[in-house]
Write a structure and sequence with these properties.
Its EC number is 2.7.11.1. This protein is of the alpha/beta class. It has 14 helices and 13 strands.
Length: 452
């Protein structure tokens, strides 16, 4: 249940409220309870911040900051069918009590605010007015305790904490460009005209500031053309923010599964190039950087594409930021449903060979254009890996390939990549190749046959 990615409960005649526990489903990327009879406040934590308002429409009693503000919900839409005068009197008394409480609360807030402002005025009256005119107004309290560290590869050396907050419109929902198990990702338009991707880590980091900075700096030293570059980090109040290079073309998941009319626009030569680049990035994590890094969550949404559709792996090494004493052994099943190696359910140990299995699922998505777990009903519904092996056992390999890329001119390439995919998806981890072998095979396919 915790690995659930899609939950569509629309048109189900549901009553009651949305359970707050659903906000703990960190892998949930698609959610809808539209056109039911739900009421109450919509959870405003976790993935719920990224769901569109259409996920909740058709429920007259729902409200929240991501839908209709609770103060704006029409009384008539919430009105129960109770015609008696005693019920009307009860409603009037309830409304009167609520109104009095709100007025008293506002009065108290105003009194506290005025008191703070008067004290601040006495304290700051001798400040330099030129300083106030030359920079944006400071965010009190939290900004004073903020810290920003930029690495040598940063595109904006003069960035400040205030600039960072303004560049995301103070983490406005409209700036969200991605979400995942580690938190939401926001687009930032930096003062120098460049863009960055800001990952707002969810959950407690479990470390002191010095340890956290050391882990982040270690990650920043993982530099490869097929990795998303970590340019800096920021602590702002209770938030931990990671600053990454911005990838203009988003994720591979979008181009394979979310394109217009459900048809991917990626031709085979581009898909092969993406597979080769992602494999090189993973090989660098496993062997090239120190210390070696097991990714743990290889999937198409963690493969980002720049303006030239070059592949860049994202979200590597983040598990140690949130679980600093993790030695690749965990009590939780790591990864994303559909990409998790079969042995993880027993060993609970993340390994390089486990990453290779997940990469094999990515290769299969590139070949088929299908998601690893299809949304379907019935006893005949199978996951993509099982379906592929079944088709292969029946000598129906050509039917596995996405019809939009199948072509006799590069049919040999497609079947060779399918062969590599099968080796990566071997149920026995000891029989799987290393990622270095996969790189060699994929590069050989491009060299021998030529890209189409």
């Amino acid at each position: 249940m915790e690995n659930l990615e899609t939950l569509d409960l629309s048109f189900n005649d549901l009553h009651g409220s949305i359970p707050p526990s659903l906000s703990k489903l960190t892998f949930l990327s698609k959610f809808s309870v539209a056109n039911n009879h739900l009421h109450g406040v919509i959870p405003n934590e976790g993935q719920f911040l990224s769901f569109p308002s259409s996920s909740f429409e058709g429920n007259a009693g729902l409200c929240g900051e991501i839908y209709i503000p609770c103060g704006d919900v029409s009384n008539t839409s919430l009105k129960p069918v109770m015609p008696s005068s005693s019920n009307n009197r009860f409603r009037r008394n309830s409304i009167l009590c609520v109104t009095i409480s709100i007025v008293v609360g506002i009065a108290l807030l105003l009194a506290v605010g005025l008191l703070k402002m008067s004290r601040r005025g006495v304290k700051d009256q001798n400040d330099d007015f030129d300083d106030d005119l030359s920079r944006p107004h400071r965010l009190s309290g939290a900004l004073a305790s903020s810290k920003l560290v930029l690495f040598q590869n940063s595109d904006c050396k003069e960035l400040t904490v205030t600039d960072l907050l303004k560049s995301t419109n103070n983490f406005n929902q409209a700036n969200i460009i991605g979400c995942g198990g580690y938190g939401l990702v926001y687009r930032a338009n930096l003062p120098n005209g460049t863009k960055a991707a800001i990952k707002r880590l969810s959950g407690e980091c479990g470390q002191m500031e010095r340890e956290f900075q050391a882990e982040v700096e270690a990650l920043s030293r993982a530099q490869h053309k097929n990795l998303v570059s970590l340019q800096g980090y920021c602590r702002h109040g209770n938030d931990r923010l990671l600053i990454y290079s911005y990838m203009e073309n988003g994720s591979l998941d979008y181009w394979l599964h979310e394109s217009v009319d459900g048809v991917s626009l990626l031709k085979w030569d581009v898909r092969l190039k993406i597979a080769q680049g992602a494999a090189r990035g993973l090989a660098y994590l496993h062997k090239g950087c120190q210390p070696n890094i097991v990714h743990r969550d290889i999937k198409t949404s963690n493969i980002l594409l720049d303006e030239k559709f070059e592949a860049h792996l994202a979200d590597f090494g983040l598990s140690r930021l949130l679980r600093p004493y993790d030695t690749h052994v965990t009590t939780d099943l790591v990864g994303t449903l559909g990409y998790i190696p079969p042995e993880y359910s027993q060993t609970l140990t993340a390994t390089c060979r486990g990453d290779v299995y997940s990469f094999g699922v990515v290769l299969l998505e590139l070949l088929t254009g299908r998601r690893p777990v299809e949304v379907c009903r019935g006893k005949n519904c199978r996951d993509l890996v099982s379906w592929m092996f079944q088709m292969k056992s029946e000598k129906r390999e050509e039917e596995i390939i996405d019809s939009s890329i199948w072509n006799k001119d590069h049919g040999k390439q497609l079947l060779e990549v399918l062969g590599v995919t099968c080796k990566c998806l071997d149920p026995n981890p000891r029989q799987r190749p290393s990622i270095e072998e996969v790189v060699s095979w994929l590069d050989g396919i491009g060299f021998e046959s030529g890209t189409q």
